[in-house]
Specification:
Length: 153
């Protein structure tokens, strides 16, 4: 089908109007977000300076701490593992999750993780601006949620 120049201009204006229509939500007192016409509040929503997240750390018999890579903590991608950890924390404080992690570590890399003394589920709070802009990756605060001591074999 062939369009005239006038039809193409009208079609383009209509499409641009639809795409730009969510911008009016920026000036509404109580904006609404709806798919597929979104003004992306996840990027524009004001957030606090600190952000807390759950993760797993391991300690060897000398007390050396290591953040456990997400691939060893759970199954799936980074966000899937993060959701698994959050769900485990809500369910039973994370203890059953730590037991699964212990079994996974015993199967995956016995040489590296065979000498662990304990595995902990931790909630760390990070200053996001400092983390991303200044490469300050140390947490402001870490709170121990659950600890699983490992018996020496």
């Amino acid at each position: 089908m062939k369009y005239t120049k006038q039809q193409a201009v009208i079609f383009s204006i209509v499409i641009l109007g639809i795409v730009l229509s969510p911008i009016v939500q920026n000036w509404v007192k109580n904006p609404t977000d709806s798919f597929p016409f979104s003004y992306y509040p996840m990027f524009s929503k004001k957030r606090g300076a600190a952000y807390g997240l759950y993760y797993v750390v391991t300690y060897d018999s000398l007390g050396n701490k290591e953040h456990l890579p997400y691939r060893l903590a759970g199954t799936g991608g980074f966000n899937q593992v993060r959701r698994q950890i959050n769900k485990a924390h809500r369910k039973d404080g994370g203890m059953s999750f730590l037991k699964k992690v212990k079994k996974r570590l015993a199967k995956k890399d016995r040489a590296r993780y065979g000498g662990l003394a304990r595995i902990e589920l931790v909630k760390g709070y990070y200053h996001l601006d400092n983390y991303f802009l200044n490469n300050d990756t140390l947490p402001l605060l870490e709170r121990n949620i659950a600890t699983l001591k490992i018996k020496e074999q």
